[in-house]
């Protein structure tokens, strides 16, 4: 519900247009701008007069673009190409007029300090505002973009007796159209094609590749591996010899003990 400050008895014949509200429906990242900048076509505009009842149906489309060298894009969540284009226009106007106005935020230029420079800036601003051309700016496109489409379902007079306007904005369905760019030929497919071509031309397989790696390992590290194996074998042989000597000693002690016991038995 919107309430206008104008009185019901006010004469509106002298006004350029009827009093009401300018409604803009756009992505939350895009700030309002009155200039004709890049990306402004993604903003839906509706004018609502006083004492109107409007039903607006929304549809949403989401686009996901892939960044490339020829078509760069920004994946920042808060990035707005419309804000970038507006800042570019402000910088161009400030450079031409050698000063800035109070509405031109983010421009590194001194504000206009006399009526002549301010009039010149407003004149240049008006020329650009009325023109249909865009200034060439180096602004990336957003990688993720959302566009809203509006459809006016009904528009009728609201008999409320007050300076009211009622606006209904809603989604007709819970479906969102998503359009996503994907690489038709990526790095994984490129490596797979190379492997398939090599396997076809050279007759290579996974087992054959393992065998080649084994031979290369033996070729470069064969001496070190043989030396390590020889050292391990020597340690194993030494352990076996020590084990055999221990067994022989134990057996000799047992036999001598048995002989002494036999001699004692014979004496008795």
From TrEMBL:
Pfam families: ASC. The chain crosses the membrane at residues 198-225. The keyword Transmembrane helix applies. Gene3D superfamilies: YojJ-like. The keyword Transmembrane applies. It is found in: Membrane. It is a multi-pass membrane protein. Its main location: membrane. GO terms for cellular component: plasma membrane. One of its GO terms (molecular function) is ligand-gated sodium channel activity. Keywords: Ion channel, Ion transport, Membrane, Sodium, Sodium channel, Sodium transport, Transmembrane, Transmembrane helix, Transport. PANTHER family: AMILORIDE-SENSITIVE SODIUM CHANNEL-RELATED, PICKPOCKET 17, ISOFORM A. Belongs to the amiloride-sensitive sodium channel (TC 1.A.6) family. This is Degenerin del-1.
